[in-house]
Amino acid sequence: MNYSQTALDFLEKGQLDDFEKNYKLALKNDTDDYLFSLAEELYSYGFSDHSKNIYEQLLKKFPDDDTLKVNLAELAIDSDDDDKALEYLSSVNPDSDEYVSSLMVSADLYQTQGMFEISEQKLLEAQNLAPDEPAIWFALAEFYFASREYRKAINYYLDLIKTGTTEMSAVNLVERLGVSYAQIGKFEQALGYLEQIKTIHMNSDVKFELGFTYFSLEEYQKAIDVFEEIRELEPQYSSIYPYLADSYIELNRVDKALLTVQEGLANDQYNEQLWVKASEIAKQAGQDELVGQYLEKANETEPDDLSILSKLSDWYIDNNEDDKNITLLKPVADQELFDAHLSYNLALSLNHKGDIKGATTNFQIAERELDSDTKFLKDAIFFYRENGNREKEIELLQKYLKVDPEDFEMQQMLDEELNY
User: Fold this and answer.
1) Is there a domain that residue 255 lies in?
2) What are the ranges of the TPR repeats (predicted)?
């Protein structure tokens, strides 16, 4: 028995001292073929440094061996030594039998660096040189899947499955295909693949895609069954709760939906969109006080989200919470981050509190975008009317009637002002 095999035997038994001793003896005594095989085995066991030492020793003896260069490049990438990896890869000649392999390793390197266009170019060049190589199809499929270019990924996954291949590198291709179809909204096709996967092979992410697909196809009870299964096994999987709650809503089980989203918040209290969803369901459940509480928590969690700010401000307006609304919106106004709707809301609250100057300023800001919004125009018309600005009142009445010429009450108001 050679030292390489003896070293591996000791490694498998967990006898590391004996492994190290025989590993060193192998480096000195074993043939090049035995050492190359040992390096491959050690890499698969995660002993990258030991594998690297062998490849480097062999490369000194065989400086033109491109297989060694590609393998060392992979090890350099694993060690985050990108410069060394590029050095090895750039030394592989395009005429080499290993050039295609070097292109694929280069693609991995550039992808880890975020240079996705170059990574794609390397893979397409490899495909051009070896168009019938399934490993390249798989690499391209995985690249496009990771880049969220699901339509392109689908083509390669389908090509692989047509050859009878359903798994590569521990990746379930049927699962990938189902998820890809779901991501582009092809839910019928997605379901056809996702339902083929055995439950024992499904992780939470794939189950989520299956539940989401049922939800999108309006099969709400099936969606609930899948989401509930995820919740039981992994309650912190917060993505399920909005869809699970909405599934209950679709089946007219509002109370169950509210309990569901509340449980989601217990597991993920920093998810602002979950707070927003909770507020929407609380509104459907007729629990208006909870609506405000949930929106306040959403705003507290993500204070820079203007859509949440707007929802909370609307709730304050509807519930005559002018002081809270002013406190909420003043800092945003001072930073000049306002949109027209927020200016409108602030104007209403400032007017209610008697700050006519501040209200006027914000009505003017809001008018820039809301000059065809009848609700805004009506509030602004009465504001200017109450504060004696007859000229502005007439101007806005005329704008209003261009939008809604059938509003006879407002037409009568305009006639009275013009004939005053």
Assistant:
1) yes
2) 204-237
CATH number, domain containing residue 263: 1.25.40.10
Whole-number pLDDT of residue 334: 75
- Whether residue 376 is contained in a domain is answered as no
Q: Residue 271 — φ and ψ, nearest 5°?
A: -95, 100
What is the predicted pLDDT for the residue at 215? 96
How far apart, in whole angstroms, are the C-alpha atoms of residue 368 and residue 391? 18
Residues of the chain with pLDDT under 50: none
CA dihedral 259, 260, 261, 264 (to 10 degrees): 120
Distance CA 334, CA 138 (A): 54
Strand-pair category, 167-168 with 171-172 = antiparallel
The encoded tokens of residue 18 equal: 């004996």
Find residue 168's DSSP bridge partners.
171
* Whether the Cβ atoms of residue 384 and residue 396 lie closer than 8 Å to each other: yes
Give the count of beta carbons closer than 10 Å to the beta carbon of residue 110: 20
pLDDT at 337 (0 to 100): 63
| Beta-carbon contacts of residue 6 (< 8 Å; ≥ 6 apart) | 22, 26
Other beta carbons within 10 angstroms of residue 222's beta carbon come to: 17
Confirm whether 321 is domain-assigned. no
Q: How many domains does the chain have?
A: 1
Structure-token pair, residue 121: 């170019």
The pLDDT value recorded for residue 202 is 86
State the DSSP H helix or E strand holding residue 359, giving kind and residue range, or none if neither.
helix 356-370
| pTM recorded for the entire structure | 0.74
Within 8 A by CB and 6+ apart from 234, the residues are 204
Element (H, E) at 408: helix 408-418
First to last CA, the chain: 114
* Residue pair 105/77 in contact by the 8 Å Cβ criterion: yes
- Residue 78 placed within a domain: no
Rounded-to-10 torsion of CA 72, 78, 79, 82: 70
How many degrees, rounded to 5, is the angle at CA 194 between CA 189 and CA 200? 170
Cβ-contact 103, 125 below 8 angstroms: yes
Which residue do the tokens 């600005």 mark?
Answer: 389
- Host domain of residue 230: 203-302
